[in-house]
Amino acid sequence: MVLRVNLYLVAHGSAVPGEKDPERPLSEAGIAECSRLARLLPLWGVRVQGLAHSSKTRCRQTAQILLPSIYPGGRLTLWESLDPDDSPGPALKAVKREKADLLLVGHERNLAKIATRLLVPKKVPPVLSLSPGSLLWLQRQRTEDGKVWRLFGMIRAEALRAWDKG
User: Fold this and answer.
1) Domain range annotation of the chain
2) Phi/psi at 94 (nearest 5 deg)?
3) For 21-79, what is each residue's pLDDT tens digit?
4) 100: exposed, middle or buried (C-beta count within 10 Å: 0-12, 13-18, 19+)?
5) How far is Cα 160 from Cα 135, in angstroms, rounded to an integer?
6) For 21, which DSSP code?
7) Are strands 3-11 and 135-143 parallel, antiparallel or unpaired?
8) How far is 45 from 58, CA to CA, in rounded Å?
9) What are phi and psi for residue 147, nearest 5 degrees?
């Protein structure tokens, strides 16, 4: 018997520059990136039972845009271990315990570390990168031989723009 858990990692949408607003909320382009992702995810069958985000405004806003389309009636959860300079350790432990599909909204640097640590059995520098408003899809398969994480897909915001136009 194979049990699967999907983990979706989303890099927050593009943010306004820190000089303009130190909180760095989503820019107009970032709102458009996240809205595009929110429209397309359900078409790809993405539904989750948990949606967590970092403490930064741009991540919370990204999660709020995605919530109705992939976790209707659900609530957002703040994971402070998703902040840009956090160690991936606490998030990795939480992800490994998860038994339901989950989407995490965070920062490229931290999400790349989380994905790399799940996919590569030894500590190496991040092997993946995400641009703002991009998605990385991992899947944990539990078999008789144990648990295995696999990269199932990645879509960058640049490709989403082309998808949405076409």
Assistant:
1) 3-165
2) -65, -45
3) 999 999 999 999 999 999 999 999 999 999 999 999 999 999 999 999 999 999 999 99
4) exposed
5) 10
6) -
7) antiparallel
8) 25
9) -105, 140
Q: Whose structure tokens read 């659900």?
A: 74
User: In angstroms, rounded to a whole number, what is the distance separating the alpha carbons of residues 146 and 106?
Assistant: 28
Strand order in the sheet with 146-155: 76-78, 50-53, 102-106, 3-11, 135-143, 146-155
| Residues 44/32, Cβ–Cβ less than 8 Å | no
> What is the C-alpha separation between 68 and 90, in angstroms, rounded?
27
Q: What is the pTM of this model?
A: 0.92
**CA dihedral sign of residues 66, 62, 84, 81:** negative
Paired tokens of 25: 């909320």
How far apart CA 60 and CA 105 sit, in angstroms, is 8
Strands annotated E in the chain: 3-11, 50-53, 76-78, 102-106, 135-143, 146-155
Q: Which residue is listed with tokens 């919530």?
A: 67
Please, are residues 88 and 117 in contact by the beta-carbon 8 Å criterion? yes
CATH superfamily of 3-165: Phosphoglycerate mutase-like (3.40.50.1240)
